[in-house]
Write a structure and sequence with these properties.
36% of the residues lie in helices and 24% in strands. By secondary structure, the protein is an alpha/beta fold. The chain has two domains: 254 residues, 3-Layer(aba) Sandwich (UDP-N-acetylmuramoyl-L-alanine:D-glutamate ligase), CATH 3.40.1190; 173 residues, L-fuculose-1-phosphate Aldolase (3-Layer(aba) Sandwich), CATH 3.40.225. The chain has a nine-stranded mixed β-sheet with strand order 3-2-1-4-5-6-7-8-9, with helices on both faces. α1 crosses α7, α3 packs parallel to α4 and α9 runs parallel beside α14. The longest helix has 17 residues. The chain is elongated, with a radius of gyration of 24 Å. The protein starts with a strand and ends with a helix. 46% of the residues are buried.
């Protein structure tokens, strides 16, 4: 995945394009850049701004677009009207997610856009945005509405949306020990809250908007994308360090590798062509475990499901440890005999699929739910555990696939097992598609 950041250069690497490239890289996306301005700043103070010329901004964009397939664009610091108009002319016909992060001033106090360019920013750049992500100050600045109540918050968001933004997220609204984002979609509005960290930092806004772009470019619904971005940003603030003499710089450290790899794999899964055809009626879950999981609380899965929506697939729920019951239970049983197997996904069963798989070099096993003892049938999740144990009891090597043909009130199912979520995706791509 290639993501383009258009914005200013921050030599402290706390914000701006340097921060975006770090964020994209941490998500295994390739970061491309167009520099609109060079700033002189550090963690204590803001110095000079040297805007790029229209000619070099245009040349940078042309160079990138002519050579790379761009999956999403983030627009940050733009500084003056000439740059704004150039960006608009180059991007006005793009049909990919564009996140506009309307940076007005830096955390260290520098004004990042000329006041006489605000009119053109509203006229040309806001209409380009799939999502615009102002904080409270920026939302007040753009809407010219003081936000001091729920009604004024909604009015400000609607006014910004009226400027042409498809979706508006007003970030960083503080209430007691919570930090809340207000989201205004085209036909929906809601808030998402999280725990507040009392740390003044440099870079969290860029972390948020860059991560949001990554999720949207992966086809994730806005609500789930916001949740992911909030958690990512929370972690970056929690791990912020005092690198210079001034305020803390956010850090993308101490990552949950289990969560990160499963997130990447799910993002790949939902983009597989025609994958909706393999989603069962009970929908799909995708899980990844820590080593030697003792319970489903040590297995990461989707708290809701990966669901079929027409001819596409959507993630409906958050990633949580203990978020899956049945697929996680299957994985626990498998992992006890074959400790290297740490990931699994359930898919729709059909005889045609099994016949196709048998023609390939695949280890397939199965169990018959009609053979299941009544004492097992009456216990929650025991059926799954019994079935997997039954299917692998005589195997010396872990199976790629285990299936059953269902029972009264029980849908037939295929479960794909592998060492990692990445390996699961490889098996699905090579065996099913």
């Amino acid at each position: 995945m290639n993501l383009l950041s258009i914005g200013g250069s921050d030599p402290s690497s706390g914000a701006g394009i340097q921060s975006d490239v770090k964020t994209f890289d941490s998500l295994n996306a390739y970061g491309l850049t167009v520099i609109t301005a060079i700033t002189g700043q550090n963690t204590s103070s803001f110095g000079m701004i040297q805007p790029a010329s229209q000619k070099i901004v245009k040349n940078q964009i042309d160079s990138i677009i002519s050579d790379f397939k761009i999956d999403g664009i983030k627009i940050g610091m733009v500084y003056n009207s000439e740059i704004i108009k150039t960006i608009y002319k180059e991007l006005k016909n793009k049909k990919i997610p564009i996140v506009v992060d309307p940076v007005i001033k830096s955390t260290t106090g520098g004004l990042l856009i000329e006041r006489n360019a605000i009119k053109d920013f509203k006229k040309f750049l806001i209409p380009l945005s799939t999502v615009i992500t102002p904080n409270k100050f920026e939302a007040e600045f753009l809407s010219e509405i003081k936000i001091d109540s729920k009604k004024s918050l909604q009015r400000a968001a609607k006014k910004i949306q009226g400027m042409g933004a498809k979706n508006v997220i007003i970030t960083g609204l503080e209430t007691n020990d919570q930090i809340t984002d207000y989201i205004l979609e085209q036909k929906n509005q809601y808030t998402i809250s999280g725990k507040k960290i009392l740390k003044t930092n440099h870079g969290s806004g860029c972390n948020y908007s860059a991560t949001l772009l990554f999720s949207l470019a992966n086809g994730i619904h806005l609500k789930e994308a916001v949740k992911f971005s909030k958690q990512f940003t929370f972690n970056s603030i929690k791990n912020a360090k005092k690198i210079g003499h001034g305020i803390l710089i956010t850090q993308i450290k101490n990552k949950d590798d289990i969560r990160e790899e499963l997130t990447h794999a799910i993002n790949e899964f939902v983009q597989i062509k025609n994958i909706y055809k393999f989603i069962p009626e009970c929908q799909t879950n995708f899980v990844f475990s820590k080593k030697s999981p003792r319970s489903i609380k040590e297995i990461l899965g989707v708290s809701g499901r990966i669901v079929k929506t027409g001819n596409s697939v959507t993630v409906a729920g958050d990633l949580e440890y203990g978020g899956s019951k049945h697929v996680a239970t299957a994985l626990i049983v498998m992992n006890k005999k074959f400790p290297e197997i740490c990931s699994a996904i359930n898919l729709r069963y059909s005889e045609d699929i099994i016949l196709k798989l048998r023609k390939k070099r695949v280890i397939i096993s199965s169990y018959d739910r009609n053979d299941e003892p009544k004492t097992i049938k009456n216990k929650d999740r025991s059926s799954v555990g019994w079935g997997i144990k039954h299917a692998i009891r005589n195997l010396k090597n872990p199976p790629d696939i285990i299936y059953h043909k269902g029972d009264f009130g029980k849908e037939p199912m295929i479960i794909v097992f592998a060492k990692t979520p990445t390996s699961v995706i490889e098996k699905i791509s090579n065996l099913f598609i």
